[in-house]
Amino acid sequence: MGLKARITFLKDYTLVEDEVLLKDLGLQYSRRRDSILEKRIYDNRNEQLFSIGEMEGVKIICHAVYPLLGFESIYMSEYEYRLNRIFRPGIMLGIGLHSAMNIYGYSFVKKGKKLRVMSGSVEGKLFEGGRRTDFEDEIYSGYDHNKQTGLFISKDGASTGNESMFGEELALSFTRLFFDKPFDQFAFDLIKLRTYQIERENQQLLRQKRKFSLFDLFR
Question: In whole angstroms, what is the distance from residue 10 CA to residue 90 CA?
Answer without folding.
Answer: 8
